Amino acid sequence: MKNVPRILTAWTIYDWANSVHSLVIVSSIFPVYFSATALNEAGGPMIDFLGLSIKNSVLFSYTVSAAFLFTALLSPVCSAIADYSGRKKTFMKFFCYMGAISCSLLYFFTKETTTFAVICFWLSLIGWSGSIVFYNSYLPDIATEDQFDRVSARGFSMGYIGSVALMILNLLVILKREWFGNISEGMASRIAFLTVGLWWIGFAQIPFSRLPDGTRKAKKAGNYILNGFKELRHVWAELQDRPLAKRFLVSFFVYNMGVQTVMYVATIFGSDELKLPGQSLIITILLIQLVAIPGAYGFSRLSERLGNTYALMTAVVIWIAICTCAYFVQTESQFFALAAVVGLVMGGIQSLSRSTYSKLIPASNDTASYFSFYDVTEKLSIVFGTLVYGLIEQVTGSMRNSVLALLVLFVIGFVLLMRIPSQKIYGVRLENAEVL
To answer: Mean pLDDT over residues 367-372, rounded?
Structure first.
């Protein structure tokens, strides 16, 4: 039974629960604390990690890349097993609890426990990205196709609201430490990591109690792992016969390289290229999150009028304009204005990408396996996008040149999207049109 309000609301609450990891751990408080804490005895950035001497900022970047690569390799197998065994929610819980507990353990992050903290950070990323695979795969299970865009936008909006709410509470503790017994700034930051884990686990209980379990398939010979690989091969074969889904995954891979890279390096660009103070960067992060809420709903409405592809193409054109302006931006006010536009289009393109893919895959019990391909595409785009950005900066010595490379990616993504018909509802009506 689909479009049940109680279940749809529960599904969106998981976005509220887990998005605090993206904002507090990945984008704001943890990176700042990491840079100030992961230092050698002389206070320098070159630290020892598992016998290797490495710069702390490079270690942070490599940890993110390693986590996403690991998840990209692991999630297809877990998804196929989940679909076969009917244990989608069980896998979602496992990754959720692993990520949340790892966040909570960052409370013990000091200069003496840097290696332990890096491992916890790595596990938190795997837990977050792994649980998202199964979370996303629930969308076609609980909603009809005509509701995908709205429900997806509602989920992203809940995530932005929830993450900002906890972020404000954490900043209150950090900036007004005298209200909390004059604790140190480091202790205030570590409390923030603990609250992320508690928030994530606590609110996740609502979707876990209401979302349906997966549908168990008839038992086959062999073990779950081998049958999981067989399911993956079956899904891959079906995608070969669905050109629209394949075309979308290719275009998504290209333009998402630009989207995700901008999201991960925006703060660094403001800090290193424009020399903005930390307070300004925090304001920027909050601004992006808040503006993303109306952006997600706005592009959902646009898709209802123009169809999914034209709405996505509109978002990509705005991203092209953003990269063009970023190359020339010089002042703090210009950076704030650009960040507002980033937030507006960030929520829209992420929400529409998820719902568009949901419309293009066939109706089946293999939704987790299908979304594992989506997840792998997303994670690999993050790895390649940040790699291209970093290499160009290293070779040319300027982040602005890296921004131009992202502009090229968006142009290519726009051209690839032109190959997909723009409709409000796809479903079976395009099965014959896909060969055109």
So the answer is: 71
